[in-house]
């Protein structure tokens, strides 16, 4: 299968200025008539080549006359010898009911909806399906009025009517030229929540939120979130909404989280529906941030879009950064930052270390769907955050203003973004721009030299990016390293040469040395405050020094991170079989931390979370998954037992009143549930867990009790899970939590449990949420089950992937990710994992999505 390369970009030979579409909905034979205004923009020799995938062509006319000088190839339609400007009218049929890949137009649960990003429009009609062709669209939808009373498309509704045959029609006009990936239509029967928003300049915008019948009250929070996002974007970036109406539709069958189609966002219902009984605090948080993310795309993505898909991070990295800033303003800066860092360390660093490593602007792609990655999104957002650090709040805003001034209405590149930012700073950004082209995780290493007699200390800060699968040669990057230095009494120091400015060292060379004077005892460097760059740190601190960092560092992120390092060190002791020998002074210090921070529920809640298996893997090589997992578990046992009394005391001190979704209550619930998780390993566990489950008036506490019971209290877990199932069996979205808990439970018979889950009446391979809840949870998070020493976990997932790939390749290619990350494991596991990847690769008819990931992982 052919890869496309970024370097091979060519502008289109033709462009399309206006599209008129007529869509007659039918489950197996939807008829599309599209009238395209086309103009040649290159030399005369070229034929018109339209993209098309799985379409039945009915007819084609050029300027109103039947046109036959065409050639249909597998995924293109060649229209030969066309004039310089012309109207092309294409009629084709498609089969939405049998579209289980959920790309293009599909019919699920009696709702028609579309997903066109990245290359789904070509499954609807023949088109120049690339983001640098921008056209206005007028779309008329026809459908059965009783079954599909709601007919929606992008833009504003301009006409509607009824036909005698029981069908009705609506015409929608979108005045903003857009690429085809932002096209959308929806037809169904929904409950509607309505509201309005008046922009700062006085424009009134209708807000409409469409949800499954009977779910109206669960949509209120999403609608309120939308208004907060609209206001925030005006206040923070001066960006207002531009159409008269903004619509959001929640659907149950969706490949990803949500899609920012112009004026008509389509959402996975998981990121819209939330109320206290059915959704956790985390769900509420996610709803607000995804609603905001899609809304923010209206400017960063829609008004200014990508020239080609290699530039995806232009819109995604920037929009993730914007939604992160919004969420931090709406909730709390610290817990947000920790959340993002966890994603980076658990998933992005692992991607960098795998065969799928790529820069935030990839160089080579076989299937674009495979590049909606943590690297493009989350590392991309970290790169934008570094711009923000370098330019400051005002400089960043200036750069953004210039970006919109230059490029509104255009399809542009990451280089264009950097150039706009360059106008707002004296720092030369050309070196910094290497972050776009270099993959891999830089490691910042610190070495210290202390001269007690002269009372001086030198700290050398060096950077090194290990080679990655896609790039063997690395260059030094331009890295903003937030830098603090403390002594054992908590006194802060800065370097004599002033290389550290405003608390940040701009590291632009392989290494630099900082000099400190007046130093009485060895200094402790405290680096990467607020995770100022997407890097790893080799700081070689002793456990005593880590505890001092927790005690004295100014930066709350550094304090949290110090605790993570303490746990990491303890787990390493357990791995060496020396866990029992951990000195009492360490346990006493941990007890002090809990006691001292007992009232700071936010920090304590975060600090009591033990690093996950996935995070621990990133600081180890050739991991034997079962020994690391057991060492982690042994540490958790020791932690709970040794600290039981202080944990219980703080647990009892946290009162949670009746449910409110506000930051203070979220922090208290979170802290209490983290404590419960530890206490579940103690003698108090069973009664505390059952009490909390019985008393819970909200899903956060219900799930907190279930998670605490999982793996620790099998009897309680069994009983409570049964109760949960009987309560939520009718609601698959909520039942996904139950599926996920079962799939991540570490038990010897987990594979037969998975088989039972797959036979559950609510499970279907056609629904990506169900598949992710069962197979995704197992493959990503059931360490003991997936990494069974006999390889049966790998085989089980592979068997399922073979089935899934034939139904929904996009989802299959996501679930295969843990198998492709074999590099980090011990040789015995590597060969078992590779054997399954080879099975996949040898399978006839493997999708492009899977082929790309599997073949790269074996290369
Ligand atoms: N821009 C969207 C990315 C996307 C997507 C969404 C839903 C289903 C399939 C998809 N393929 C790509 C989502 C976003 O980042 O906002
Ligand atoms: Zn996005």
UniProtKB/TrEMBL annotation:
Aminopeptidase N is involved in the degradation of intracellular peptides generated by protein breakdown during normal growth as well as in response to nutrient starvation. The gene is pepN. One of its GO terms (biological process) is proteolysis. Pfam families: DUF3458, DUF3458_C, Peptidase_M1, Peptidase_M1_N. Keywords: Aminopeptidase, Hydrolase, Metal-binding, Metalloprotease, Protease, Zinc. Residues 440-539 form the Peptidase M1 alanyl aminopeptidase Ig-like fold domain. Residues 45-182 form the Aminopeptidase N-like N-terminal domain. Residues 221-434 form the Peptidase M1 membrane alanine aminopeptidase domain. Belongs to the peptidase M1 family. It comes from Salinimonas iocasae. This is Aminopeptidase N. Its cofactor is Zn(2+). Residues 544-859 form the Peptidase M1 alanyl aminopeptidase C-terminal domain.
């Amino acid at each position: 299968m052919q890869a496309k390369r970024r370097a091979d970009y060519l502008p289109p030979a033709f462009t399309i200025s206006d599209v008129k579409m007529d869509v007659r909905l039918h489950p197996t034979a939807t008829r599309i008539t599209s009238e395209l205004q086309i103009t040649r923009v290159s030399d005369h020799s070229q034929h018109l080549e339209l993209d098309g995938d799985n379409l039945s062509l009915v007819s084609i006319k050029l300027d109103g006359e039947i046109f036959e000088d065409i050639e249909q190839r597998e995924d293109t339609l060649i229209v030969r010898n066309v004039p310089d400007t012309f109207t092309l009218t294409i009629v084709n049929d498609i089969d939405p009911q049998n579209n289980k890949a959920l790309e293009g137009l599909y019919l699920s649960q009696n709702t028609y909806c579309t997903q066109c990003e990245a290359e789904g429009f070509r499954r609807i009609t023949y088109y120049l399906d690339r983001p640098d062709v921008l056209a206005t669209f007028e779309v008329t939808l026809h459908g059965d009025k009783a079954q599909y009373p709601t007919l929606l498309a992008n833009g504003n509704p301009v006409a509607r009517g009824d036909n005698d045959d029981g069908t009705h029609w609506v015409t929608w006009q979108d005045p903003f030229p857009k690429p085809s990936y932002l096209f959308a239509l929806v037809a169904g029967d929904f409950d509607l929540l309505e509201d309005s928003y008046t922009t700062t300049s006085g424009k009134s915008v209708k807000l409409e939120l469409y949800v499954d019948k009977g779910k109206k009250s669960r949509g209120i929070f999403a609608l309120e979130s939308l208004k907060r996002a609209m206001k925030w974007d005006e206040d923070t970036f001066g960006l207002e909404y531009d159409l008269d109406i903004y619509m959001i539709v929640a659907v149950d069958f969706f490949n990803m989280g949500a899609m920012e189609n112009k004026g008509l966002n389509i959402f996975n219902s998981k990121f819209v529906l939330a109320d206290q009984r059915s959704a956790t605090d985390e769900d509420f948080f996610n709803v607000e941030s995804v609603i905001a993310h899609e809304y923010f795309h209206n400017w960063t993505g829609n008004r200014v879009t990508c020239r080609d898909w290699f530039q995806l991070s232009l819109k995604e990295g920037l929009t993730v950064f914007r939604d992160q800033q919004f969420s931090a303003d709406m909730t709390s800066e610290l817990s947000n930052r920790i959340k993002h860092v966890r994603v980076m360390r658990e998933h992005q660093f692992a991607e960098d270390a795998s065969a799928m490593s790529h820069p935030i602007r990839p160089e080579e792609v076989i299937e674009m769907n495979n590049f909606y990655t943590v690297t493009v999104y989350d590392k991309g957002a970290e790169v934008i955050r570094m711009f923000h650090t370098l330019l400051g709040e005002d400089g960043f805003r200036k750069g953004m203003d210039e970006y919109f001034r230059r490029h509104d209405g255009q399809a542009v590149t990451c280089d264009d973004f950097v150039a706009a930012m360059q106008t707002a700073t004296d720092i030369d950004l050309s070196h910094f721009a290497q972050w776009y082209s270099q993959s891999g995780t830089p490691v910042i290493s610190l070495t210290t030299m202390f001269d007690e007699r002269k009372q001086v200390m030198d700290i050398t800060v060096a950077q090194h990016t290990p080679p990655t699968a896609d790039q063997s040669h690395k260059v030094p990057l331009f890295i903003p390293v937030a830098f603090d230095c403390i002594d054992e009494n908590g006194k802060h120091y800065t370097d004599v040469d002033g290389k550290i400015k405003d608390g940040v060292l701009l590291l632009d060379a392989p290494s630099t040395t900082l000099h400190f004077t007046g130093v009485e005892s060895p200094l402790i460097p405290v680096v990467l405050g607020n995770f100022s760059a997407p890097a790893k740190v080799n700081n070689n601190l002793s456990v005593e020094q880590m505890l001092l960092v927790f005690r004295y560092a100014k930066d709350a992120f550094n304090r949290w991170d110090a605790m993570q390092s303490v746990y990491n060190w303890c787990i390493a002791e357990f791995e060496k079989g020396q866990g029992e020998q951990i000195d009492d002074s360490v346990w006493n210090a941990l007890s002090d931390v809990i006691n001292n921070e007992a009232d700071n529920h936010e920090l304590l809640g975060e600090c009591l979370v033990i690093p996950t298996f996935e995070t621990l893997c990133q600081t180890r090589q050739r991991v034997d998954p079962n020994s690391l997992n057991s060492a982690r578990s042994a540490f958790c046992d020791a932690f709970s037992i040794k600290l039981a009394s202080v944990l219980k005391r703080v647990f009892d001190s946290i009162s949670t009143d009746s449910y409110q979704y506000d930051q203070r209550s979220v922090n208290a619930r979170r802290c209490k549930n983290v404590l419960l998780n530890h206490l579940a390993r103690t003698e108090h566990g069973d009664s505390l867990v059952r009490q909390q489950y019985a008393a819970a008036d909200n899903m956060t506490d219900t799930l907190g009790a279930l998670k605490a019971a999982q793996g620790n209290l099998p009897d309680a877990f069994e009983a409570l899970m049964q109760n949960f199932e009987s309560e939520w069996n009718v609601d698959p979205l909520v039942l996904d939590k139950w599926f996920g808990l079962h799939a991540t439970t570490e038990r010897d018979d987990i594979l037969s449990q998975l088989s039972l889950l797959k036979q559950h009446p609510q499970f279907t391979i056609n629904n990506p949420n169900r598949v992710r809840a069962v197979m995704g949870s197992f493959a990503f998070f059931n360490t003991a089950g997936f990494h069974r020493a006999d390889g049966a976990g790998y085989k089980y997932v592979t068997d399922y992937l073979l089935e899934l790939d034939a139904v929904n390749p996009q989802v299959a290619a996501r679930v295969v990710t843990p198998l492709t990350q074999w590099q980090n494991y011990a040789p015995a596991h590597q060969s078992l994992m590779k054997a399954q990847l080879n099975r996949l690769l040898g399978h006839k008819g493997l999708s492009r999505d899977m082929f790309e990931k599997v073949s790269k992982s074996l290369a």
